[in-house]
Amino acid sequence: MQSRWNDDEAAGFKGDLAQRVYTSRLLGRDKSLVLHGGGNTSVKLRERNLVGDEEDILYIKGSGCDLEVIEEAGFAPVRMAHLLKLAQLKAPGDPQIVNEILTHMTRAAAPAPSVEVILHALLPHKYVDHTHADAVLAVTNTEDGEARVREVYGDRVVVIPYVMPGFDLAQLCAARFPVEAGKHTIGMVLMKHGIFSFGATARESYEHMIHLVGLAEDYLARKGAWELRWQQNGISRKAIRLELAALRAKLSRTAGVPLLLATHQDARSIAFARRADVAEISQQGPATPDHVIRTKRVPAVERDIEGYAFRYREYYNAHAPYAREPKTMLDPAPRVILDPELGMCAAGRSAKEAAIVAETYLHTMDVIERATLLGGFRALSAKDIFDVEYWDIEQAKIKKDGAPPVFAGEIALVTGAASGIGKACVEALLARGAAVIALDVNPAIERLTRREDFLGITCDVSADSEVVKALENGVKAFGGLDMLVLNAGIFPGGRPIAALRHEDWRKVMQVNLDADLTLMRECHPLLKLAPKGGRMVVIGSKNVPAPGPGAAAYSASKAALTQLARVAALEWGADGIRVNVLHPDAVFDTGIWTDEVLKARAAHYGMTVEEYKRRNVLKTEVMSRDVAELAAEMCGPAFAKTTGAQVPVDGGSDRVI
Ligand code: ZN
Question: In angstroms, what is the span from residue 66 Cα to ligand 1's centroid?
């Protein structure tokens, strides 16, 4: 393990707290040390307060802050004197301790301190670093882990047996550390949890961490348990989207809420899922209490969700009676599924959560495989996992989280999504918490926005094979399909029927009608598996009820599409799929309407551009966003009992009303 310290970089961080920021980021950059939001660091500073008193303040990473990108403001300043007094209490409740900590900060706007704040206060060093390094966990999480840790470190570290993080752990360290620390001590190993290092400067504490983790890596290498090799097991090329959607449906049913499911078919995940002993090694539990909390339970299962839910209920019932407070049972759905064909599937209420689960499990696989090479992986006991999962503090967070966004855990697909109404639909759906698969023939779609819950795919929807490929990739990314917005369409220049060439007519029909048939046919089995029922919204046109001269192909295509949607509403109702159509008119903030075209059209009617834009009953301008908001609402609870409807969004048309 290499130190990432760089003198030039470090010189840009002036002052003790800034140095703390710098080395915290160095730790955060290495995912084998800490994952998103994991690990914590602190520095003790002496400061003069507003009334002139000097006091010692512990600056500790705020909970939820990510070490890789932390700023000074991400550290919570807590009064040391009070923390040290709290450490003397006999068995206070965790909620009380949390209250004491929050009321003894010196900056009201600071984030809540990490739960390990008392432990950091008790360690008599200016800088303290804490990680859940993979290499250390591979050594501690074995049958004879403690003996191995002593063999690796000698008197460089104090070894603490596993106890629940929080107050109990702080007290145990307070008792053990002063007795066991000697002049060579530069760290502390917490069995089945992680490692601490400390020092007088930020650099020293950081480099102690690197040194200590490096020793664990060297040990693993000596024991032939460092290099992990896996064969390039070929994955079959067959389509798996229906299997995945069915798996996600089952998982969501078990959870009681829709979950996203991200599929990872890298050689590493596939090899792990195909191990002969996968059922045994993956069922023990997480490698550190940190991974239970942040990912709401990481234990993996093979594709037997129902069996897992059953076991989970037994496990809850077996342990809940020992709990001090009544507990809210978490949903019994696992968050990682291992399957020899599918690879590793990570579930979450959002794409971000699923990504954190996947990353956590990728590291867990390393720990498990290395510990197995050392003789056998030993995770926390079921009781320990229960205690962390059902910790008062975690339970309080669950209660505080509040209502999730309306489309949390759901997936939408939008066609023609790179601009205009399609792009606005993407935004409206993302804003409501959906993950979005966005298709467009314009490759710019791939860079439309950079977020975990967005997948832009270049796709000519009039080519069947491209649609099938896009669906396959979309479902691998998110797990299925709940909402389909058919928006892609072309509007060729006006041409009277007398001059309408057959190839122009065909082109319009191909994109505006035939492509939608393909999408509907291919998406139907996926929509049928949507946990809350599938929804399809078709972007029609005012031209359907009120056609104009010169747009025969366009009007005919949209009328046929509307009729197709009406038949779908009839056919798909029994599958719980709702189909509704909206008819926009005169939406000018789209690609088709350049300033010149607008001016020409306005002049044609003897109007100014402004008058032309608002020539409707309400004299209002209809924007892409207005159409998109209605499309998203049609997928939501307000339209839960509506199907086969056609709703105008045109400011009112006297030809239709
Ligand atoms: Zn920890």
Answer: 14
Task: Report the alpha-carbon distance of residue 201 to residue 125 in Å, rounded.
Answer: 9
Which helix (H) or strand (E) element contains residue 145?
helix 145-153
Q: How far is the CA of 654 from the centre of ligand 1 (A)?
A: 67
Structure-token pair, residue 475 = 């479902």
**Residue 299 Cα to ligand 1 middle (Å):** 18
Domain ranges, residue 124: 7-222
Ligand 1 centre from 337 Cα, in Å?
Answer: 25
Contact assessment for residue 119 and residue 173, using Cβ atoms and an 8 Å cutoff: yes
Buried b (16+ CB within 10 A) or exposed e, 428-443: bbbebbbbbbbbbbee
Q: Report d(CA 103, CA 120) in Å as an integer.
A: 18
List residues bridging with 581 in a β-sheet.
538, 646
Which residue, among 499, 411, 406, 414, has the nearest Cα to 448 in the 3D structure?
Answer: 414
Q: Which two tokens stand for residue 355?
A: 């990504």
- Give the tokens for residue 444: 């710019």
pTM, rounded to two decimals: 0.92
Tokens representing 2? 């290499």
Distance (Å) from CA 133 to ligand 1 centroid: 10
3-state helix/strand/coil string of 47-110:
EECCCCCEEEEEEEEECCCCHHHCCHHHEEEEEHHHHHHHCCCCCCCHHHHHHHHHCCECCCCC
- 121 C-alpha to ligand 1 centroid (Å): 15
Residues that are catalytic: 554, 558
**Other Cβ atoms within 10 Å of 70 Cβ, number:** 20
* Number of structural domains the chain divides into: 3
- Measured CA to CA, the distance from residue 515 to residue 511 in angstroms comes to 5
Task: Report which DSSP code applies to 636.
Answer: S
* CA of residue 197 to ligand 1 center, whole Å: 12
Helix (H, G, I), strand (E, B) or coil at 606: coil
Q: Do 420 and 554 belong to one domain?
A: yes
Instruction: Write down the pLDDT at residue 399.
Output: 63
The strand pair at 260-264 and 157-160 is best described as unpaired
How far apart, in Å, are the Cα atoms of 44 and each of 123, 189, 199, 200, 297?
10, 21, 11, 10, 33
Structure tokens at 382: 């079921």
Separation of 101 CA from ligand 1 center, angstroms?
A: 18
Same domain for 571 and 434 = yes
* DSSP three-state, residue 521: helix
272 and 175 share one domain:
no
In a domain, 595, yes or no: no
Q: For 222-276, what is each residue's pLDDT tens digit? A: 999 999 888 776 777 789 999 999 999 999 999 999 999 999 999 899 999 999 9
Q: Can you give the CATH number for the domain in which 443 is found? A: 3.40.50.720
Q: What is the mean pLDDT of residues 333-358?
A: 92
Nearest to 542 by CA among 618, 632, 646: 646
Ligand 1 mean position, distance from CA 495 (Å)? 70
pLDDT score recorded for residue 305: 83
Between CA 547 and CA 542 the distance in angstroms is 7
Instruction: Clarify whether residues 433 and 453 are in a common domain.
Output: yes
